[in-house]
Amino acid sequence: MNKIELDKIIADHKSWLEGKGGRRADLSLANLRDFDLRGANLKGADLYHASFIRADLTGANLSGANLKGADLTGAVLRCADLRGANLFGVVGMGKYI
After folding, report:
1. Structure confidence by residue, pLDDT tens digits, 22-47
2. Labelling 43: which of 28, 59, 74, 85 has CA 20 to 30 A away?
3. 60 or 92: which carries more pLDDT confidence?
4. Distance between CA atoms of 46 and 33, rounded to whole angstroms?
């Protein structure tokens, strides 16, 4: 996955959240290693077994997201919203949480 593809998925997800069409983000099994996701709104997204190794998720909205089995090793989660997220089986809960 590249940044352009990810930006499109996040934009479609935003439209879905606002009830303006789009579609729920499905990033299950995605390799998002080293990605800059600061402030991303992934509320309710499917992030099942995604790899966020060393990703920057500062201020990201991950509330209600399915992070089951995701790898957050070395991820920066400063001020990230994880309320109601499924964290079952998550590896390496990141830093700055």
Report:
1. 999 999 999 999 999 999 999 999 99
2. 74
3. 60
4. 17
Q: What is the DSSP letter of 21?
A: S
> Which CATH number characterizes residue 48's domain?
2.160.20.80
Backbone angles phi, psi at 71, to 5 degrees: -105, 110
> How many angstroms from the chain centroid is the CA of residue 96?
16
Amino acid symbol at 6? L
What domain count does the chain have? Answer: 1
Structural domain includes residue 12 = no
Q: Does 61 fall in a domain?
A: yes
In a 3-state reduction of DSSP, which class is residue 59?
Answer: coil
Question: What global pTM score does this model have?
Answer: 0.92
Residues 65-90: tens digit of each pLDDT: 999 999 999 999 999 999 999 999 99
Q: In degrees rounded to 5, what are phi and psi of residue 12?
A: -65, -35
